[in-house]
Design goal:
6 helices; mainly alpha
């Protein structure tokens, strides 16, 4: 199978695109909040300062961006592993797309109405999809 066309490249790029879009939204949200509340940009020196200055729902994009640097790391790692060492099959590709779809849902929920139970379900489904990929890779390597 061609390394660029093994079925995992597009879900990986979709996850990177999601991360970029949340990052852009994060800065739009922060700048808008700072302007609306007359906060000097110099007051955002540390993550702690930022958390104190931008409370509650106004920090959802920041929290979501942090989430996109956690579990997706496992996703990228297993995708690279499967691409380099082989073993990509239809189930891995399906799991990759389940991960992407539910991460998009998770981000949408987190950055908008932020219902914790719905967000958790989206997180759980996306995480299970990745762990299925990991366990299958481990079992095939034994």
């Amino acid at each position: 199978m061609d390394i660029l066309n093994n079925g995992l490249a597009t879900p990986m790029l979709a996850t990177l695109l999601l991360t970029m879009l949340v990052w852009i939204y994060l800065f739009i949200q922060r700048i808008g909040y700072a302007k609306a509340n007359n906060i000097d940009i110099e007051d955002f020196k540390t993550p702690g300062d930022t958390a104190a200055l931008i409370p509650g729902p106004n920090s959802s994009a920041s929290n979501n961006f942090q989430n996109l640097l956690e579990m997706p790391l496992v996703f990228y790692t297993i995708c690279f592993y499967l691409t380099i060492f082989g073993g990509v099959d239809d189930l891995h590709v399906a799991c990759a797309w389940v991960f992407v779809i539910f991460r998009v849902l998770h981000s949408f929920i987190h950055c908008t109405f932020n219902r914790v139970l719905l967000r958790f379900i989206a997180y759980l489904v996306s995480s299970v999809a990745v762990w299925v990929m990991v366990v299958r890779a481990i079992l095939s390597a034994l």
